[in-house]
Amino acid sequence: MSVQTQADHGFTPEFQVYEPHKTGIPPLKPYVKELWRRRQFASELSSSTLRAGNAQTMFGRLWLVLNPLLLAMVYYLLVNILSKNKGGISYLDHLVAGVFGFYYVSGTLSSGAVSVVGSGALIANMSFPRLLMPLSALRSGFFKFLPTLPVFFVIHAIASATQSSTQAKLYPVNWSFVQLGGIYFVLCMTLFGAGIGTIFAALQVYFRDMSSFLPYMNRIWLYLSPVLWTIQTVPGRLERFMVFNPLFSILGGWTDMLTEGRVPPLGIWVRAAAWSVGIFVAGSLFFMSREREFAVRL
Amino acid sequence: MSSLSASENTPSVTTVKPSPRPGPAPVVRPAVKVENVSVTYRTTWEKRPTLKEAMTRFGRGERAVREVEALKNVSFEVPEGTALGIIGSNGAGKSTLIRTIGGILPPTEGRIEVHGRISALLALGVGFNLSLSGRENVMLGGLASGLTRKEVLERNQDIEDFAELGDFMDMPIRTYSSGMRSRLAFAVAVHMEPDILMIDEAMSAGDARFKEKAAAKMHELMGSARAMFLVSHALASIEDLCTRAIWLEKGHLMMEGAPEDVVKAYMAHVGVKLDTLAREDL
Fold this sequence. Notes:
The complex is a heterodimer.
Chain A: H1 2-6, E1 15-18, H2 28-37, H3 39-55, H4 58-82, H5 88-113, H6 120-125, H7 132-145, H8 148-162, H9 165-170, H10 182-206, H11 210-223, H12 236-239, H13 246-260, H14 266-290, H15 294-297
Chain B: H1 4-7, E1 30-44, H2 51-60, E2 65-79, E3 82-87, H3 94-101, E4 109-115, E5 118-121, H4 134-144, H5 149-163, H6 178-190, E6 196-200, H7 208-224, E7 227-231, H8 235-241, E8 244-249, E9 252-257, H9 259-270, H10 276-281
Parallel strand pairs in B: 3-7, 3-8, 5-6, 6-7
Antiparallel strand pairs in B: 1-2, 1-4, 8-9
Helix pairs in contact in B: 4-5, 5-6
């Protein structure tokens, strides 16, 4: 039949055919095409959500930076009081880089998790690629992450100017062109955050209490990731398991480059890329295979 | 059906001649073709499924999901130019049918062909995000349905004028009354210039004046849209606006025909006397 070939299985072509779908992944090419065509929706959703979350007020914007910064301060006090850490301001520099990076990923994860269930009516009543919802959460996460970078560089400048030689030995703080390589790891965080946010967005539809476990999961993940410690000072007992923590390579490489200007070993680059691409692909495919069920589950 | 000619306004007996537009239209293409469609979906018992519940249920060895047979082997065709009214009791599968034609729910069996772009106005209060303003929601709804930012902005004024919300356009939707919400939802749906317009229960909200305006707008749209679907419990407006009607009962297609006949049969089935009050409130 000639009409059969014209049918696009897309979302708004001139002629559509809807037939029972085999459980699994929808045809990728039209899906991605539609996704791209409606990218404005994702960006509009994210920017209006940011606006509604009073990000447009002075204090609202300040809070986006203040929140992770205060958290870094808490850990700084904690580590300095509990252990005999001699890192001082240089340690703070490492800590802040790690916390900001971690916050980017975990923030994307938590807002991605509620992105689908939080938009029930839209999903129940309109036909569009559902992947737009977690991707919009990713965009919000990125725009919350950006303003933390200048804050980091202020701390970095203070640290590099005032650090003592013992501090510099323990936690080197340098300016270098190598820092630009951090962009690679931001890319990894972005892909990884998108993937993991997408997975949790789908899971949240089936288990609505998932989001109440997330804060605990995030907290544990933070301790198991190179935020309070560096990939050089990884606690011995943990080292064996670090292959299983995607954030070990992603955040480790990020902090190494950004604070010390040191090029991490090749293994870190490869693992960071493998984890982020892997999770991104797996997450998107998992989400797409489930998304046609969302309308009845919400 | 022999009774068809008696109540039809047009003298034609066999089929409802749909095209109101002049000019040669020898072959009437179907705008929507529904062939043997069944929709069965799995859903959970709980309103809000949780991991905790799932674990306790697993411990007790209970089944989590139940199957809902929302539509059973439904077939019909909607020629271009038709305004199809869909009636039936609560839970008859009306909204499921609309959602399936709109591509939101995949059919479990059968096949649906749709010629044209669909704008769906399903159960009132569409996809609105309560904390965002009316204006932002209009933009989001438009973008989600596949328009560009520019196209939505072009329609913005018309939507505002039609919804008559005034300053409320810039207030969060949560400050709206239900009538205001439905006015906005209706205004958005009819201004997206769809080929196929689907309206679910739109007439039940809004004041008398807006109802009249909405009905006039739908009449006007019938000139440009290829087809229109109207799901409503207000049987009078089905008779008023539609050129054809179907009646669904527990997922089965009970009857298809002229609106007057279908409404009559439906009312006889549910045992309601034919008076205007019941026709409005059903």
